[in-house]
Amino acid sequence: MSVTEHGTPEHPTTGHRCRGTRRGARQVAGIAATVAAGVALTSGGVYAALTAQAFNGTAQQVRTGTLLLTLSPTAGSAGFTSVVGDLAPGDVVNRYVQLQNTGTLPGQGLTLRLADSSPTLLTTSATKGLQVTVNECPVAWTVATGTCTTSAPGVPGTGVPVLAQTPAATLASTSVAPPSLSGPGLAPGATRYFQVSLTLPSATNDDVSVNGVAPTGSVQGLSAGLTWTFATTQRAATTTNS
Amino acid sequence: MPGHRSLLGLRRPTGLLAGLLAGLLAGLLWCAPGARAAPLPAGATATGALTSASWGVVVTTATAPPHVPGPPVVVNGTLLGAQHFTVAATGTRRPASVVYRLTSGNGLVVSGALCAVPWTGMGTCPGGSTAVPFGSPVGGALVPPVGGARYLRVSALVAGAGTLAVEAAPPATPSPVVPRQE
């Protein structure tokens, strides 16, 4: 581009003067500058202001609690994992287990539920099927004799009933939480000792086999795969001020 | 001042948008099941197997196992004759008692006797036999042990065709109940 005597730019090929083009460029530049200034003003981090911060020099430690239950046989007992075989009407089989809270949070609302992997009359009939009773001892049961040996006041040798005789069919359909079972809760590190009794009612199972054939609806020769589940929830949530 | 108006006009929508986004995020968090402040649950389980007993006694003409449960055996009409049967336990527990039930159309049964071993060809029982009262509960030696068998000889004066079966009652439970501590 060349410049004329009057100082007006002239188009290099056409030779036309470019006064109008120059004015337009100035206007575009002005608009761009205004827009840039507006964007700069409206973006948050560019205010010309003083700032200050304060923070704790040592990081605050936050640890979540744990709620862990372990179920194990009481010493000397087979617990739940060994087979109960050939249970006949009137038989009572006691198993001794202990439930420990190995977590850091107290548990509350302890419940018990039973599941049968192959349901039969044993766990579906409330009248002919298995009946479950749970007693508790504040210390480990004396398994050999089935007694609760403790000096705790008000605790008989048979322990404290926490679940009155209940059909397994009931336990298989819903979790039970009688107050004496769920009420005490389970503090961290605490252990509860249970005697779980299984029986087949004799009054409703007076089945007479004829020439080796059991009558229809008999509980004879049935099998069950029982899963016992104790469950609890954390203690009530709290708000602390300190 | 035009610039100031422009500034306010831009910041207000930005603030509204941020508020909307924050509200939406909070809603999503609340709706997500895992994000609610639900009480911490814990559980412990143990599994074990259980089998119920069976108790049954079968009377059969078969002399050797297997002795399978089935219908009552047929007792043929005889005249001063004897018939021999095997009485075998088929259950897992020994019945508390059994009833030897003989039904005969028009017969007169003289006697029944149980032997611990098969009767001889001479009709004798080595070691002695035990009389069987038909139609009444009996126990003890008249109940075959689990997996075992006894041998029954039925003598009749005259008997029409009838049937013979053994009814087995549930196993005995110690009284008072002695729980199995396991």
Question: Strand share of the residues of chain A?
Answer: 25-35%
Most extensive contact: A-B, 74 and 53 residues
Q: Give the C-alpha Rg of chain A.
A: 41 Å
The number of E-state strands of chain A comes to: 11
Number of strands of chain B: 11
CA distance, first residue to last residue of chain A: 79 Å
In which order are the strands of the major sheet of chain B placed?
2-4-9-6-7
Structural class by secondary-structure content of chain B: alpha+beta
- Strand order of the main beta sheet of chain A, please? 3-5-9-7-8
State the end-to-end CA separation of chain B. Answer: 92 Å
Region (Disordered) (chain A): 1-23
Protein name (chain A): TasA family protein
Biased composition (Basic residues) (chain A): 14-23
InterPro entries (chain A): Peptidase_M73_camelysin (IPR022121)
Task: Show the helix and strand layout.
The complex is a heterodimer of chains A (242) and B (182).
Chain A: E1 2-3, E2 9-10, H1 19-42, E3 69-73, E4 84-87, E5 92-101, E6 107-116, H2 121-124, E7 131-137, E8 160-167, H3 168-173, H4 179-182, E9 191-199, E10 209-210, E11 223-234
Chain B: H1 2-31, E1 41-52, E2 57-60, E3 73-75, E4 79-89, E5 98-104, E6 108-115, E7 129-131, E8 137-138, E9 149-158, E10 162-168, E11 180-181
Organism (chain A): Kineococcus halophytocola
Protein name (chain A): TasA family protein
Region (Disordered) (chain A): 1-23
